[in-house]
Amino acid sequence: MRKLLLLSSLFVCLVTTAQKNKYQALLLDKHLTNNANAVVRLDEMKINVSASNKMTYTVRQIITVLKKEGDRFAVKRVGYDKEHKIKAINLYIYNQLGGEVDHIKKKDFKDVSAVDGFSLYTDNRLLYHRYTPTSYPYTIDFEYSVESSDTGFFPPWNFLSGYKASVEKSHYSIAYANEVLKPEIKEFNLDRIEITKSDVPGKITYEAENIEAIKSESLGPAFREIVPRLKVRLKKFNLKGEEANVSDWKEMGVWMNNALLKGQDVLEPATIAKVKGLVAGVKDPLEKAKIIYKYVQDNTRYVSVQVGIGGWKPISAIDVDRVKYGDCKGLSNYTYALLKAVDVHSYYTVIHAGATKVDFDEDFAALQGNHAILAIPYNDQYYWIDCTSQVHPFGFVGDFTDDRNALVVKPEGGEIIHTVAYVNEQNHQLTKVNYALEATGGISGNVRVVTRGIQYDDHFALEKDVNDDVIKHYKSYWSNINNLKIDKYNFKNDRDKVVFTEEVGLSASNYASISGNRILFIINAFNNNNFVPNRYRNRKLPFKIARGYLDEDEFVVQLPDGYKIEAIPKAMEVASEFGSYKVSFEVNEAENSILYKRNLLVKKGLYPKEKYAAYRDFRKTVARADDLQVVLVKK
Amino acid sequence: MSRFKYVLPVAVFFLCYSVTAQDYKFGKVSKEELLEKVYAQDSAAAAAVLYRKRNIRYNYVQGSGFQVITEVHERVKIYTKEGFRYATVSERLYKNNRANETIAGLKAFTYTMENGDVEKQKMGKSAIFSTSLNKYRNEEKFTLPNLKEGSVIEYEYRIVSPFAYNIDEIVLQYDIPIKKQEISIATPEYFMFKPNMKGYLGMQPKYTTNSGKINFSSKTRSTVGQVSQTTFKQNEIDYTTNVTSYNMDNVPALKEEPFVNDIDNYRSAVKYELQYVQFPQSIREGYTTSWEKVIEKIYDNSSFGTQLKIHNYYKDDLELIKAKTSSKVELVAAIFSHVQRRMTWNSIYGYFVDKGVKEAYKEKSGNIADINLMLTSMLQQAGLEAYPVLVSTRSHGIPLFPTREGFNYVIASVQLDGNTILLDATNKFSEPNLLPTRALNWYGKLIKKDGTFTTLNLIPEKPSRNSFNMSVSLNEDGSLEGKMRKTYGDYNAYLHRNKYSSINEDEYLEKLENKNDGMEISDYTVKNKNALGKPISESYAFSMENQASTIGDKIYFSPLFHLAMEKNPFKLEKRNYPIDFTYPWQERNVILISLPEGYETTSLPEGVNLVMADGMGGFRYQISLKGKILQVLVDFKINRAIISPEYYQDLKEFFKKAIEKQTEKVVLSKISSDGTSQSAAGGR
Fold first, then answer.
1. Domains, chain A, ranges and CATH?
2. Pairing state of beta strands A347-351 and A371-378?
3. Fold of domain B292-457
4. Alpha-carbon distance A323 to nearest alpha carbon in chain B (angstroms)
5. Euclidean distance between the first and the last CA atom of chain B, given in angstroms as a whole number
6. Which class does domain B464-670 fall in?
7. In this predicted model, what pLDDT tens digit does every residue of B571-600 receive, in sequence order?
8. pTM attached to this predicted model
9. Residue A154 and residue A234 in contact, taking contact as beta carbons nearer than 8 Å
10. How far apart are CA A623 and CA A530, in angstroms?
11. Is the pLDDT reported for residue B12 higher than 50?
12. Which residues of B fall within a CB distance of 8 Å from A627?
């Protein structure tokens, strides 16, 4: 016994000296420090699945932070809840030479509620620690292990932890007790790095070494689209006590229906009678759906409460009906139940919401998504409604859930369906202006802005704003006009056609600059687009235009008496694969006015980095042309 | 006097009217309140508090002593969907190892009009959520059911606090208007509190007294023969309660404005500061009564004064420093720099030490007091006249009244040749007499060794100067190339260093280029990047496209090019709160432009010299042609760190004129082929 002990402590010694090298920060590979605020010396996760409702994962991260901007990689947090128990957690801090500076034990971590910023309540909690560095570089060694009865959300793997952090060694392994528990893995972007993979009975391992840091660049794709990563799922899994055995989306849908949705759609007879009354005499299912959606919008509000399985299971329709609030799941399920009560079919839909589009993988049925909406089938097409919004028109979801694959839960099984897309010309803005220029340099006039598609989404909230905020909005929307005064405004929101119209009466003193006998002014006062993306000495990433848009402008400019046009720009037209731009200036001598016409189309697309400079040139041309000036001189 | 007579009946009439119109008893929500479409005094309000009651009183519990009970009752009208968020209410409750605050008696109802009838819905238990936020705070939240535009919600609850020595700050102004509020604070004579009011609202508290009783029973057990008997005896102590009430009508909403460092500084509120506690037959336990007492109390605390007296831990280091310096000035600088380099601030505020100076010195990190008390101590130990200075940071508000909570920060000071030098070693780029911007808040209190104090102005008076020299040649195609030299002084250097010190040069240049319209930079050099006390000086060559417009045979350009300020930061018509620039500043641009061949000037902007009211700001613009070189000098300055809102219109107008001048154009014309033109004669 004694011998054995000695041997094992010797072994420990050996390991520690070998590991010590990881803690010093003097000798780091140039490739790894290049562009990096931190170097992840070791990133390791070892998962052990012993049953469909039992797994542990042990994580070890050794990170050398090179400078202040890398401190975020040393802020460590681990979430826990009823199903996820933190078994061990330790954090060591080392100085540049590898000397231990601090040791943070479990009791030293701060224990806080995992406030997510939008929930009224959540039962998730966090242990976290933020170290105050006294010098750079420094190294942290962070270890923890979690035991979980949830296997539905299987920890995925990113071979990089974020922008500007390189990785010296990355290790991910899953040991599983039997073939039924063997995880399925889907690989993304692994071509950028060299991977060692092993798949032997009972264990899958991925390793990679020396992965250089990447830098974020404007208009670049989302991090998840470029980072080498793995997505993992178990066929047989457990979610907050609910067992599942799912091999594809169809089965996932069946499971969700049975485990999460079934029976939640019951309503009080009084409520059923009430909504039947609302649609009395209406035959068309789509018309009925519009009435029900309006009723939900007028009578409920969004309140997020996440408790236990409630993170996935909607609260019952009866409960929502009683309090008239709920989260995305609760409100979607409630609306589903109301629609059902008036014989309109709809489907509960799980989706990944956000302005950045994230698709569900068609061929990989793993739990995902952060939002629920409804899909209403009608005449071979789907209408999508977001029941958490009290303002969006029926069937219009804006940039929150547009143009992406989502899981539509049908009783016969799940189905991946792409939501409605708003692209290019559909995102339309028409600006029509009549404005007069005065000899003193001031301008005054009336502006009409008509928006559709995503541009509607950007504008229609104005309708609900109070006066102060409307004025603030215009002062920043037309920030190119100093001394702007809004005299009056009026909005029309056509929710049926999804068109928003703003009529604004305004004036501004000293808009034009006067030099001697001349008046100079930028004729495009009301849609001046000076966006030019940042220049990169060495662009590394492709770039993305997520939706595209079309702006059309027509301004009639009344010139002051006693002046004549000395110089006026020439019409021009540019076309590129990213879009097109057209501008013209027509003088009406009789009226002493100028008709200015402009047309800018920017096209949705993912473009290779080689074309970035060309896109920048296109935007520079537009920016320059939008600043073209007219010169008047005293007669 | 006669005027008063005239006014009085009207006021009485209004008072009567409002009393008969509303019933503020819990549950007596009226149809009128439900039918109201908009808040009369502020039509922009998404919601308004129709009635708010907050009664704070003391309750004696036998065995555990006094508790503070806060009774809350609020009736809130929701006008629009944007106002729904006011139907979620949260209370933060304090706790420590021994005791915690709790909420009791929570009742909440939503009232809605349904087809002409008032419908009332009770909030269920499932709408109440308790969260433990961290070691010291719990949070109690609830949200009301069945909301609609037009709903009125009403709730009441009690907060029971075992911390009798503390009454939380009472906010008197919300982000939405309050129609009527009745606040009262009743404290037993044993606890002497002093109210400190802040904000822009006029408050007229009423003072009255009540009497209270403490009932406690004592038990005596006596045995007479075989019979045991217990007698209960009721004891009573009478005491006086001091009651302050604040009854306010039509309290306006507090609204955000730009250039305000923290809007909460202007929120009206009252804070009850404990001055002393004196129970019958006990000696008075003093807390705060005056600045003297507050400061004495802080100074005497072992986490403050005592910390100045520990010196063993730095003895050797200090000897080394002393050996290397030959004058007092050098000594101050060397000690400051030693502490600044050695120590890193752990982002924790406070005038009391966190770890203690000794431990902090060893670990090389600490809170504000750890670092600056250590600094003060070292200066004192080196034979200098050094003192700590108590400060309230910008985000902590202005300490108008003597309170311990009025401060949250401490810095060091040293007397040199009759001058006071302020020192703060918690930022890597601060300097003697250049405090981190967070500490630039009004006045500080300098504490002498005997515990007496003097008041010091912390706001810098010397403008921080930027000086830009640009020498460029303008080409016919509108492009520009030339050289730039920029120097950043004082706070400009401080901020620059804090922002850019840890990024590499390439990245910095990329940022600089993109900030300046895609300018292309070469031959970049920088001096004094990290040499504290000296201005940063950077120079580079650059080129830019599209800096002038060529229209016909004329070229138009603004002679400040990208250095011109183009947008007025002051856009709003009105302003209620002071404009806070943090520190006075000056920007001086000297620009030499060599004009393209074959062109001459047709028109030049006129020079101006603007001076803002009371010398608060100045703008000077001069332009002249010397041969083929256009010389421009622009000097723009704001001489005060804080400008009061009465000057807002002046300031806005001043910026407007300064911006117009900066964007005004120079016009050049092509010299005709025979080499002459009408306007050329004057130039030759």
1. 23-239 (2.60.40.3140), 258-418 (3.10.620.30), 424-634 (2.60.120.1130)
2. antiparallel
3. C8orf32 fold (3.10.620)
4. 4
5. 77
6. mainly beta
7. 777 787 888 888 999 999 999 999 999 999
8. 0.79
9. yes
10. 4
11. no
12. 549
